[in-house]
Amino acid sequence: MQKRAMNRAAPLSLCLALVLVLLSACGGASGGTTAATTAAAPAATTTAAAAAAATTTAAAESATTTATAGGATTTAAAGAATSAAQSQAPAGERDSRIKDPNIIGVGAVPAFHETVSLSIGFQHNANIEDLSTNLMTKYFEESLNMSLSFIDLPSDANELLQKFELMAVSGGDLPDVVITRGSELGGIGNLEKYGQAEIIQPTTEYYEYLPYWMLESIPATNIQDFDDLSLDNLLRYVTSNDGNIYGVMTYHPSLTNSVSMNFQFLYKPFLEALDIVEPTTTEEYREVLRALKFGDPNGNGINDEYGLIGQTGNVMTNLMRPLMIPFQYIQNDYFDKGADGTIDFAPTKESYREGLRYIKSLVDEGLIEPVSFTQDSSQLNTLITAETVTVGALANGSVSSIPATDIRRTEYEVILPLTGPSGLRQAIYQYNIPRISFVITKNCTTPEAAFVFGDFMCSLRMSFWSQYGNQDEHWSYTVNEAYEPYESLGWAGHIVLPPQPSGLINHTWTNTGAYIGWWNSVGKATNLDTRITVSRQSIENTYDAEIAFMHRLPDFCDFSDRNKLVIGMIYNTEEQEAVTEYRSTINEYVQETFVRFVTGAMDIDTQWDSYVAEYDRMGLREYLGAVQSASDRLAGK
Fold first, then answer.
1. How many angstroms separate the CA atoms of 57 and 76, rounded?
2. Does residue 537 contact residue 485 with C-beta atoms inside 8 Å?
3. Is there a contact between 503 and 126 (Cβ–Cβ < 8 Å)?
4. What is the dihedral of CA 454, 459, 463, 464, to 10 degrees?
């Protein structure tokens, strides 16, 4: 069984320091600021804080030697900063490799002697008022000595890709830099294609001497998706098969995102009304659904309660995964990876068939509402937010769709994974893989400066700004102040976000471009005694959806076997062609037949063989062969 993902969390002093040093860590607009200097700032009141801020080996090692917190040495905490720093020489030694004489030095703020002008292709966000006057834009310009202009690109990922390719073909219309919210330029395979066509520029060499701020932020992402949380290891996942990296890395770990696809919620007041304890097996779960459906838990004398309810969609949103995992491991593309690395396909296995039988039996008994296979998320939300509570069991990744002023946000509580009839009890853990959301095009005449800008976007301060805004203006930090519902979990402090004004925003870039999403780590990856968390509302009579599941995240990690995951594949041209040709059709067939089997439109017994044979006709063998080849290469076979 996989070790708990949180078991190497930093001590409380380091967690607090990560937030408290934000303002000083980036040094404002004064020249030559370094993280070593920042470590001595008043905000960093402990040597553990210095370790958090340190991005040179010498500073981190110094903190490692002396740091103490309550009598316990914090060498493990400081070691996180040290390990990242050791992948690079100290900033001063790397300055000599800079070719652009306008760059002041590695990690310098301001970064440039003369103003650097960059045009940015920005994925459209209708919620942003005006990028040219946006507070985040102004901070970049003033801090680094830059002048930024913007070219609006489509919000839709497919339209953005088409627009980018048209701009590339036309020749001179490309901006200097293109930034997106995700991998909207098509992933690493596409970037390699554009790079070899000299549409975008490689950044491989720059990672050897220019990174500074991302080295500050990476140690703060203490979720431990990877045993080796170093820049070099993370870069493996954005390196193309030609050996190049095409862009500035974005890394956004989130423990909630990693395990939320397992979630099933039960309405706690209903359980209390019926004197029911939380189920631990699939058959106990059946009994709970019977009671919720037929026991009148809302006490109105009407049989108006639902059993389990969910929504339509793919494996990320529907109820397949939480109900199937007591029988068969279900990851995003349904691969089933054996201990020897052999990749099979879950929907063709007998264990998956047994899971179908179980789910169908719940449908046949009326314990899963048929509307779960046809309604969308908005229709589901209407049901669970109705004045009279009728939904006792919910298969969904979150209850955040319930308004913050509705106490039901905290009354739907996630249950732990169920044990199946064979004794199997497991959870799915989805790695957070680095991606490229910032590319430098062929038209950029100052690519080193563009990379410096992307690196600064990855700093602690700017990564947090991209999500929430400026410290003390759009959010504030509170330590040891009673705040329900967090106080009951023993959380040490929280980040408060005042109620946001309605309408357009003009203070963040809403996670567009390069950033290191460390804020999720602070809230969700430290142990339960030293939590810091984000509170999205700070007004009275509001409730946080995360209370329904955050205290159970460590348990989901305990039940997860991450060795089964097939993720982070970087395909060569031949493999990518196979994946592109077969993946979508096969995945759609999985979802279509899942619904048909569990609703009785297809017979699980008499039509199983023809169902399995259809995958061969769809190219499953060729598809799995391409995935196996890429997986073996990633594993060094």
1. 15
2. no
3. no
4. -160
How crowded is residue 338: how many other Cβ atoms within 10 Å of its Cβ? 10
Integer CA distances (angstroms), 349 to 232, 343, 603, in order:
37, 12, 16
Residue 452's identity, in one-letter code, is: V
User: Exposure pattern of 151-168 as b/e (b: 16+ CB <10 Å)?
Assistant: bebeeebeebbebbeebb
- What angle is formed at CA 124 by the lines to CA 121 and CA 126, rounded to 5 degrees? 150
Which residue shows structure tokens 């008994």? 365
Residues in the chain: 637
Chain segment 494-512, per-residue pLDDT in tens: 666 666 666 899 999 999 9
- Determine the 3-state secondary structure of 144 from DSSP: helix
8-state DSSP, 138: H
Question: How many Cβ atoms are within 10 Å of 603's Cβ, its own excluded?
Answer: 11
At 390, list the tokens: 């009728």
According to DSSP, residue 560 is labeled B
* Per-residue pLDDT at 473: 86
Could you give phi then psi for residue 534, rounded to 5 degrees? -100, 125
Contact, 444 vs 176, CB < 8 A? yes
Cα–Cα distance, 73 to 553 (Å, whole number): 27
Give the separation between CA 159 and CA 427, rounded to whole angstroms. Answer: 36
Rg (alpha carbons) of the chain, rounded to whole number:
25
Backbone angles phi, psi at 123, to 5 degrees: -60, 125
Nearest to 326 by CA among 198, 442, 425, 206: 425
Residue linked to tokens 């690493």 = 188
Closest CA to 358 of 334, 326, 330, 335: 326
Given a contact cutoff of 8 angstroms between Cβ atoms, the answer to whether 438 and 214 are in contact is no
Task: Report the 10 Å Cβ neighbour count for 257.
Answer: 17
Three-state SS for 214?
Answer: helix
Q: Look at the pTM and tell me if it is higher than 0.85.
A: no
Least confident of 5-9, 191-195, 233-237, 614-618: 5-9
Residue pointed to by tokens 């913050």: 404
What is the edge-to-edge ordering of all strands in the sheet holding 391-395? 306-309, 391-395, 264-267, 412-414
Would you tell me how many other CB atoms lie within 10 Å of the CB of residue 445? 10
| DSSP-based three-state secondary structure for 248 | coil
Count CB atoms within 10 A of the CB of residue 52. 36
Amino acid at the residue 292: L
